[in-house]
């Protein structure tokens, strides 16, 4: 019985009560009473009746009075019991009590059952509607973000306090008005743009800086979502929803994090530069001090003169290395503009072969000398394979091109601590569709300079960071983390790009793409 819809029947005639109960008890849980006051008590105690049948001519309380009392405390559908000839009672009950159905006496079982079924269905719809209204009110009151609904004319129909507060108004001041009338944060053209975009996309999310409604507070950041709701059947226009999430605190935390990252980067940069320059200055000062001591002697022998010359050469080399480090910093920061000119790539790479090969050999020898555990002491071999003819030119800075190839080769040499072969391959490549390596590379003919090694290789996680300034996997004293950042900046300034292919345990190939000048 508890699972069946509950029906309350109130009539001063016990025969009518029993008759209705017998008609309905197979499909409903039927409560009967001859007292309107007892009926009110049952309703107030919380019994969820789906329908209430009430005899209008109750001596203690007329039907219009009873229904007026229960109208606001229950969703039960109200049904009037009365004689067919008492239309005055029916009209009075309709006006005052808000009845939904009328059952005439004498009772017809089929008619009674049909009306009660319809009344129960209506009650269930009303209960669902009230439940949804309660849910909506709960959401409006307790959501952590502003929520507002607009009808098809753009007028606000519902809004919570957070949405109203952002506009510097109360909820009641906002309802029935359009966004153009009460929105202080956006210009009319901005609101028009929002409407046009919503009609096209039906949903979009935007992060916007919104001036605070309080003049004593700074602006706030909101994640604002605009959404078109489904059309009501037969309607052409949409109603819409605006959701406004305050992300000001999140933005502040992001700003603090960015500031902390900048400070960390500056600290790393300062440490790296200080370390490198300290090494260079130590070499220069030591060489100059030894030269000074030798020069203080009265008569210099040939051997001492040779030593002084060697010390001065070391000093000059250290100064030149400092200049190269400064060049890297300037190139990365882009304060130094490239000296663009036509460069024959094949010619320049071949001319620099001896210097490049010697530099790599000396660096490899220095690393092996400092590695006491090194057992295999093979050499670094440089193999240049030029698959393009002389006369193929690009527009770039020749000194920066030389430095970029040098950096890639040094990285390859460092990735092979026990020696191996480095290949520098030059070839042409035609790009017919725009591709993206690190930025968009347009269609056209390109010279590709690839530096390939047989080293340790890199994981995808490492590859994702190699062009970041000051990122390095090398041990202290062997890298500043600026080399690949400089290569990346150089390629972009020259209108090209950089592509990386690497596999752990197999090796790495880094290619610089430079656009070929038309003949």
TrEMBL record:
- Ranges annotated as spanning the membrane: none
User: Which keywords appear in this protein's UniProt record, sorted alphabetically?
Assistant: ATP-binding, Nucleotide-binding, Phosphoprotein
User: Cross-referenced PROSITE patterns, in alphabetical order?
Assistant: HIS_KIN (PS50109), PAS (PS50112), RESPONSE_REGULATORY (PS50110)
For whether the record's keyword set contains Lipoprotein, the answer is no
Q: Where does the record place the Response regulatory domain? A: 6-120
SMART domains named in the record: HATPase_c, HisKA, PAS, REC
Q: Where is the PAS domain?
A: 132-200
Q: Which PANTHER family match?
A: SENSOR HISTIDINE KINASE, TWO-COMPONENT SENSOR PPRA
So which domain of life are we looking at?
Bacteria
Q: What is this protein called?
A: histidine kinase
């Amino acid at each position: 019985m508890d699972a069946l819809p509950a029906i309350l029947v109130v009539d001063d005639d016990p025969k009518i009560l029993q008759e209705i109960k017998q008609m309905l008890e197979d499909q409903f849980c039927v409560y009967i009473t001859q007292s309107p006051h007892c009926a009110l008590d049952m309703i107030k105690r919380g019994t969820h009746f789906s329908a209430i049948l009430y005899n209008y001519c109750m001596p203690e309380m007329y039907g219009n009075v009873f229904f007026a009392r229960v109208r606001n405390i229950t969703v039960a559908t109200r049904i009037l019991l009365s004689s067919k000839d008492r239309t005055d009672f029916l009209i009075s009950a309709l006006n005052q009590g808000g009845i939904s159905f009328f059952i005439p006496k004498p009772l017809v079982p089929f008619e009674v059952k049909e009306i009660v079924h319809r009344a129960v269905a209506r009650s269930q719809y009303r209960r669902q509607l009230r439940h949804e209204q309660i849910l909506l009110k709960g959401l409006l009151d307790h959501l952590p973000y502003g929520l507002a609904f607009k009808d098809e004319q753009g007028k606000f129909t519902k809004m919570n306090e957070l949405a109203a507060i952002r506009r510097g108004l109360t909820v009641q001041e906002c309802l029935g008005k359009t966004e153009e009338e009460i929105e202080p944060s956006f210009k009319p053209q901005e609101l028009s743009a929002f409407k046009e975009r919503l009609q096209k996309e039906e949903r979009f999310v935007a992060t916007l800086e919104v001036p605070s409604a309080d003049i004593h507070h700074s602006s706030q950041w909101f994640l604002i979502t605009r959404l078109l709701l489904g059309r009501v059947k037969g309607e052409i226009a949409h109603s819409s929803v605006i959701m406004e999430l305050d992300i000001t605190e999140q933005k502040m935390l992001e700003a603090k994090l960015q500031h902390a990252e900048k400070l960390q980067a500056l600290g790393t940069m300062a440490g790296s530069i200080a370390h490198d320059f300290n090494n260079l200055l130590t070499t220069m000062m030591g060489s100059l001090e030894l030269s000074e001591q030798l020069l203080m002697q009265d008569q210099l022998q040939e051997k001492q003169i040779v030593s002084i010359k060697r010390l001065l050469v070391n000093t000059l080399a250290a100064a030149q290395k400092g200049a190269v480090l400064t060049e890297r910093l300037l190139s990365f920061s882009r304060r130094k503009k490239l000296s663009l000119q036509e460069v024959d790539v094949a010619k320049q790479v071949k001319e620099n072969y001896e210097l490049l090969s010697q530099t790599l050999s000396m660096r490899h020898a220095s690393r092996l000398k400092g590695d006491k555990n090194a057992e295999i002491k093979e050499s670094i071999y440089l193999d240049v394979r030029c698959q393009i003819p002389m006369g193929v030119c690009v527009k770039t800075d020749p000194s920066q091109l030389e430095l970029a190839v040098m950096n890639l080769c040094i990285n390859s040499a460092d990735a092979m601590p026990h020696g191996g072969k480095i290949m520098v391959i030059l070839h042409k490549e035609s790009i017919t569709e725009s591709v993206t390596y690190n930025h968009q590379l347009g269609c056209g003919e390109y010279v590709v300079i690839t530096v390939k090694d047989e080293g340790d290789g890199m994981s995808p996680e490492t590859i994702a960071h190699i062009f970041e300034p000051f990122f390095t996997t090398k041990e202290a004293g062997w890298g500043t983390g600026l080399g690949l950042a400089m290569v990346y900046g150089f390629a972009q300034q020259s209108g090209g790009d950089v592509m990386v292919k690497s596999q752990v345990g197999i090796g790495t190939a880094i290619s610089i793409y430079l656009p070929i000048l038309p003949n």
